[in-house]
UniProtKB/TrEMBL annotation, chains A, B:
Pfam family, one: DHQS_C
UniProt EC number: 4.2.3.4
InterPro entries per UniProt: Dehydroquinate_synthase, DHQ_synth_AroB, DHQ_synth_fam, DHQS/DOIS_N, DHQS_C
Protein name: 3-dehydroquinate synthase
CDD domains per UniProt: DHQS
Top-rank EC class of the record's enzyme: lyase
Domain 3-dehydroquinate synthase C-terminal: 181-325
Length: 361, 361
């Protein structure tokens, strides 16, 4: 079992990584007998994990309610969020309740924002079941829902009480979802850790084959990196913005294509290639490194170009709604070689447009 | 001009109270030329205040957008909240925007929650135009929308950057709204300040006649009391709960009757009388004090009984969804004589029911 701490003063919390956590009652401590919890999950995951998790909790004397949402990014809306509040109020759950987010990034983001907002804040536990949620979205307290005009535009910084990562979940993950998670994994290598990028080049086949040791190391390393960044800059005033490599382009793809048509990691993969092209055009990223990035993403089963038929000009209005825009000026995350990145304001529009055109299919 | 500070470390902020603030550009400092703001107001207030406020801001070089919501507690919903986000994204507004809540408690609660949630948090300024918002809801950072199953169930603790109280607003306030605000004013006397209660008994006629000196003193005293309570207990782990005197009963009335049919202060007035009856039945509130409370509320034009036809049993399910419920146990705010109150758990259901029956019309 691996245990990492996200260090945030009195809001610090542990990330536990191991196989078989869902069959170990200790996983969900410090929930105590008599406590009330609401498990938030979706229609795809409920048949796989809900009963074992309920059984473990109920065995410990915990009162378990559940709300099962439809599956998909297109349901990450205020309207679907309201269903969580309705479920909580129907029972009713008090301020001392705990929400358990059992699912991928969409469930984690929604249950987290529901926990931040229900009665102005209740406790929640992240139980990520996808690679993407395990390595990225479940750690660090970013919660949100989408708006038709922009992804993750409505939300809160709100930290979980703990993160419980059961490696067994990945056995039933569809290959496209695994690849989507690998996009965020590769991102850490590009922006923060060249040695990890090299490790990924060496172990991509093992990861795709779900080798337990490779997965365990990979998830731990990503969580370590994320925990360090979040501890240093919880509310994204600086360093944390680097974790958005590829996301400004990627969110434009997700919003333009309709939420759920491109998986988040797929859009981020294409976006990272675009950012690499922008960096190359600005003279801070070599053609060799660009080939290594596109090569590794492609091996992970990810797109390295934007959607067919989406013109470069169609990216810009979406990109201007990015949360990193300040005083109407776009700020992009750009790699500076492999293992290092920067937040860069004032990249000219023609470079941005060219970087997108560089990646058209 | 009166100025009070709400002391919350780096999130401290000023409350400014005076006549004529809307015609003084200095009121909206530290907004600077080039800043982007979104004024949130409603259909009733827009014709009264929007143009002067816009003019002052635009004169200072600030870029002003506006969103005008329908007027009434029944519109304090997630669906109407989404209109604020849409207005922000259509322009688009970045993380460096400022929301200005120009209105009563409903506008302040909604614009505040929108500010807490838009891009995970932007700045906002409270500009309360009703007595209720000026003495209570605009100060202290409680923001929320309602759910059909419970009032203020979805929200955040999120402090404004400043509170601007222009006393001239009260000249155009409908009498029923003035009375509603006086309910919260009288509340401060009952729970925290006997001398202020006596002052209110002596000056109620002046307040109802909108005497400027009386209003100015009254609003300042309420803001001082609220600022002290909030500074001591921002997130309502103890002392702050006292500000909810009458609210557990009152929220039940508002929810049962349909939001907007009883004004918030009207429901709180009836609820305070019920709480006083419960306290009397528990031997901690005299019949004389009860008469003084009902007498003062009645003079302020407020109901001292619940809605006709709402049976005591109909209050309880709503009351059990109160945010002060812990482990399924109701906690009530009860006065202990005039000027002092307590949070009390374990009040027997029959006392609660009897306290409601004591106040039936």
């Amino acid at each position: 079992m691996e245990r990492i701490t996200v260090t945030l003063g009195e809001r610090s919390y542990p990330i536990t990584i191991a196989a078989g956590l869902f069959s170990d009652p200790a996983s969900f401590l410090p929930l105590k007998s008599g406590a009330q919890v609401m498990v938030v999950t979706n229609e795809t995951l409920a048949p796989l994990y809900l009963n074992p998790v309920r059984a473990i909790l109920e065995h410990a004397g915990i009162i378990v309610d559940q709300v099962i949402l439809p599956d998909g990014e297109q349901y990450k809306t205020l309207a679907v969020l309201e269903r969580i509040f309705t479920a909580l109020l129907e029972k009713p759950h008090g301020r001392d309740t705990t929400l358990i987010a059992l699912g991928g990034g969409v469930i984690g983001d929604m249950a987290g924002f529901a926990a931040a907002s229900y009665q102005r804040g209740v406790r929640f536990i992240q139980v990520p079941t996808t690679l993407l949620a395990q390595v990225d979205s479940s750690v660090g307290g970013k919660t949100a829902v989408n708006h038709p005009l922009g992804k993750n535009m409505i939300g809160a910084f709100y930290q979980p009480a703990s993160v419980i990562i059961d490696l067994d979940c990945l056995k039933s993950l569809p290959p496209r979802e695994l690849s989507s998670g690998l996009a965020e994994v590769i991102k850490y290598g590009i922006i923060l850790d060249y040695a990890f990028f090299v490790w990924l080049e060496e172990h991509m086949d093992s990861l795709l084959a779900l080798d337990p040791d490779a997965l365990s190391y990979c998830i731990r390393r990503c969580c370590e990196l994320k925990a360090e960044v979040v501890a240093a800059d919880e509310r994204e005033t600086g360093l944390r913005a680097l974790l958005n490599l590829g996301h400004t382009y990627g969110h434009a793809i997700e919003t333009h294509m309709g939420y759920g048509n491109w998986l988040h990691g797929e859009a981020v993969a294409a976006g990272m290639v675009m950012a690499a092209h922008a960096a190359r055009r600005l003279g801070q990223f070599s053609a060799d490194d660009l080939l290594r990035v596109t090569g590794l993403l492609a091996r992970a089963g990810l797109p390295v170009a934007g959607p067919e038929g989406m013109a470069p000009e169609e990216y810009l209005p979406h990109m201007m709604r990015d949360k990193k825009v300040v005083s109407g000026k776009l700020r992009l995350i750009l790699p500076q070689g492999l293992g290092k990145a920067e937040v860069r304001a004032g990249v000219p529009d023609d470079i941005v447009l060219a970087s997108i055109a560089d990646c058209r299919t």
